[in-house]
Amino acid sequence: MQVSTEHLLQQAHERFAVQDYYGTIHLIDEIVESGRRFADVYHLRGLALSLLGQPEKALEDLDRALAVNPRYIDALVHRGVILVELGRSAEADASFQRAAALGQSGANGFSRPVASRLANLHAAIGDAYAEVGATEDSIREYQRAVALGPDFHDLRYRLARLLLEAGRLLEAREELDRIVAVQPRFVDAQAALGLAHYLSGDATGAQEIWARCLKQRPENARIGAYLAMARRLAS
Asked: What mean pLDDT do residues 224-234 have?
């Protein structure tokens, strides 16, 4: 049975919270292999590696996080801390200075850390609405979250799924296109994009997207089923 990347990331955070850093890394490895290569994923693995006494490998992951999101303040700060430990003080100072400069302003005039916290709070409220079937209210909260954190693609993906559930297919396609443009190996987002195309009447486009997904993840039964269904109905 395939485990969602969201569930794996939640488990990774839980392992990290109880100081099971090897367990954290194992779960993050699974996420990366699944194609979800977001900044927060690399950042968490970098922290775990650092706490296991592997600073060079930790720096590699923090640099990967910053390659995905150059404005990731926490990654810059933790990178600076590790560089200090390695005696690379000039590089550490540069990293801290970048973090300080980014922290001065963020989305909607909020500092980056504040915008991040607010985005996650809106997402939590959105989840609460979704649990009781208030999909439109949930969508509004996630739209607020994404406005505060435009590069939080895990939140954007959840927004897209909600839009799909609400039948707002073109809006879902727009959100998923933005994710895939930045994270082309995020297979879950690609699969959802194919579904959005299919449901909006673009069966050919959906088949092309799902075929690409299946090349990346041939063991993904869900995508295989989507593709088989589309081809069967087209014949």
From this structure: 77
- Please classify residue 116 by burial: count the beta carbons closer than 10 Å to its beta carbon, then call 0-12 exposed, 13-18 middle and 19+ buried: buried
- Both tokens of 228, joined, read 């088989």
- Tell me which residue range forms the domain holding 185: 167-235
Q: What is the pTM of this model?
A: 0.58
State the chain's mean pLDDT as an integer.
86
Tokens of 131: 């649990």
pLDDT confidence tier of residue 98, bands split at 50, 70 and 90: confident
For residues 12 and 87, membership in a common domain is answered with yes
- Cβ burial of 230 (10 Å; 0-12, 13-18, 19+) is buried
Instruction: Give the pLDDT confidence of 166-180 residue by residue, as tens digits.
Output: 999 999 999 999 999
* Domain identity same for 14 and 76: yes
Whole-Å CA distances, 230 to 27, 41, 167, 199, 218:
33, 33, 19, 11, 17
For residues 53 and 49, give the distance between their C-alpha atoms in angstroms, rounded to a whole number: 7
Q: What share of the chain is helix, strand, coil (3-state, %, to 5)?
A: 80, 0, 20
